[in-house]
Amino acid sequence: MASISVSSAELAALEATLLNTSGTVALHDRFRALFTLKALKTQEAVEIIAKGFQDESALLKHELAYCLGQSRKPSVLPYLQDVLANVKEDPMVRHEAAEAMGAIGEMESIHFLEKYLHDDNVSVRETAELAIDRIKWDNSEEGKRHLKETEADDFIPTYTSIDPAPPTSGLLSGAPKPQDLSHASIDALKTKLLDTSLPLFDRYRAMFALRNIGNAEAVDALAAGFADQSALFKHEIAFVFGQLLSPHSIPCLVKVLDDNNESEMVRHEAAEALGGIATPEVLPHLREWLKREDAPRVVRESCQVALDMYEYENSDQFQYANALETVQAAA
Description:
By secondary structure, the protein is mainly alpha-helical. The chain has helices at 8-19, 27-40, 43-51, 58-71, 77-85, 91-104, 109-114, 122-138, 141-150, 183-194, 200-213, 216-223, 231-244, 250-258, 264-277, 283-291, 297-313, 323-330. The longest helix is centred in the middle third of the chain and has 17 residues, at 122-138. This is Deoxyhypusine hydroxylase. Catalyzes the hydroxylation of the N(6)-(4-aminobutyl)-L-lysine intermediate to form hypusine, an essential post-translational modification only found in mature eIF-5A factor.
């Protein structure tokens, strides 16, 4: 995708779609425009993405911050710093800005992030802690060695995302070894995942190691994390299930989505994971929470996006981030 060439007119059309300048663009179409811009990987694209922080939708702004982090461009750090520093912003957006700073991995960000280790919002505090540890790991010998491996021409990642923490060392890349799939290995990772006495970064490393194992036993181990007290931790479990796309995770994700007492941040991520899994049994639940009057806005909007993902997964469309095709067809 890095070699995609777009005209200034096409870029302007993508911007108009993302920013909904007409006032008539559906949220799910704006998401497709966002991920199309993310895939362009250009400075012009990330600057357009950053303009979206003026929007009213916390869900969209949280996704903007995520995409800026995945760009790994240090040039977007000022935008992310402004979002994190804005105490009037939704905590879900602020947390994602901090996480994005961690994904970019600049040592200079640590000093800025340290100011938020005592933020009033617990999810922001926890994310600042994670982001600092992620940056330190990226700049460690292991992190630098891993980066060099990923830059090799023959390296094929299982997951392309830059996550809040890397998997535990033996599962950083490549297929799990037979011993990784053993009950003892998975149980040891589960124990680490659920151990609240450990640093959050270490627990996240176990989380992403279980993701890389990905079998039913690993899914069950991850699902046990939904009993945690941390909304941030639980929302990352749901995000991981959205990466795994395992039908085995559907029951626990539906339970999270249906729980009115659960954090909106966790429920929204569960909805999007269900949309990605896209089997028939998820459809009634997404439709219900799209229409329910007691659904929080971020949950309702997540169901709208999830239903579009469901349609994509069950279609013959080549790719989800297809907004460029749409603007070309409209030209």
